[in-house]
Every structure is written in structure tokens, then in C-alpha cells.
Write a structure and sequence with these properties.
The chain is α+β, with helices and mostly antiparallel strands. It has a domain of 102 residues: Ribosomal Protein S5, domain 2. Helices cover 40% and strands 18% of the residues. It has 6 helices and 5 strands; from the N terminus they run αββββαααβαα. It has a 5-stranded mixed β-sheet with strand order 1-2-5-3-4. A hairpin with a 2-residue loop joins strand 1 and strand 2. It is elongated. The model has no long low-confidence stretch (mean pLDDT 87).
């Protein structure tokens, strides 16, 4: 059984081996209160990988649905093994974080090539999803739900 310190050391070693030094394209993706800073490298000699918060994408996102959402921009361009991707995401829940990574990755890839920007825009990956939770109002039980009314 590994301790937490050993696990953190292993993930730091994995991150150090996968993240190359040099030029990259960076973009920010947002969804609900999740914010993702995504960096994309297209170095010829670099190892290919997809890291989220210094962990592998399949380790960070537990379900296949959230993993596919995060990698959707690469899948649309058929370029899964062509780039090294590193994302730092915080806030909200796992699903919103994967969608924030998706938008950030799409913006970064659009910054690399103008033709890709057209494809990603047509697929709807560059458009932000601005829906957020509505605040609770006073006199209400939730944002819109009123207390039960009784005649007497």
C-alpha cells in the first residue's frame, strides 16, 4: 500500500517526464465555476500525453464520459497522439471541469491553426456555456421555489 507522499512523488515524476520545456500555446476554458488553464505543445521530440492537475486524464476524470468530453477537440481534429496537453483546473465539479478543459483545449488548438478554428467553431467547441446556478432569493425556499401557500 502506497502512502500519500509516495503517490505524490510518482505523479510529480510522471508530470516532469511528460511536460516538455519550450514553446506552447495556452488558453483558458470556463464552465459554471470551473476554470481550466490548458497548455498545448507540438514538439517533435516530446512524449505525447494528456495531464490534468499533474495526473493522467484517465486517473483524474473517473468516467469515460468526462474523459471523452475533455478530449473532444482532439477527437474532432483526429489528432489524439499529436500533442502534449497539460491542464490545471479548479472549481466546480468533475463534469464542469471536464467541459472547461474541453473549451480551453479547443481555444488553444484554434490558436495553432486557422483551419482548425473553423472546424472547432462549426462543432460548437469554442462557444462558451454561460449557464450558472441562479442565486437564492429571500422569501423563497430555493432560487424560485416559494413556500406552500395556505388559505387558512
Amino acid at each position: 500500500m502506497q502512502t500519500v507522499e509516495q503517490n505524490q512523488e510518482e505523479t510529480a515524476v510522471v508530470a516532469a517526464n511528460l511536460i516538455p520545456k519550450g514553446r506552447f500555446v495556452e488558453a483558458i476554458g470556463r464552465r459554471k465555476t470551473a476554470v481550466a488553464r490548458v497548455r498545448v505543445w507540438e514538439e517533435k521530440s516530446a512524449k505525447r500525453g494528456f495531464l490534468v492537475n499533474d495526473r493522467e486524464v484517465f486517473e483524474y476524470f473517473p468516467t469515460e464520459e468526462t474523459r471523452e468530453a475533455a478530449k473532444e477537440a482532439l477527437a474532432k481534429l483526429k489528432a489524439q497522439n499529436r500533442f502534449t496537453v497539460s491542464a490545471h483546473v479548479k472549481g466546480s465539479g468533475v463534469s464542469a471541469q471536464s467541459e472547461a478543459v474541453r473549451q480551453g483545449l479547443a481555444k488553444a488548438l484554434a490558436g495553432l491553426d486557422g483551419e482548425w478554428k473553423k472546424k472547432l467553431k462549426k462543432a460548437g467547441l469554442l462557444k462558451p456555456d454561460t449557464r450558472i446556478v441562479e442565486r437564492k432569493k429571500f422569501g423563497k425556499k430555493k432560487a424560485r421555489k416559494s413556500p406552500q401557500w395556505s388559505k387558512r
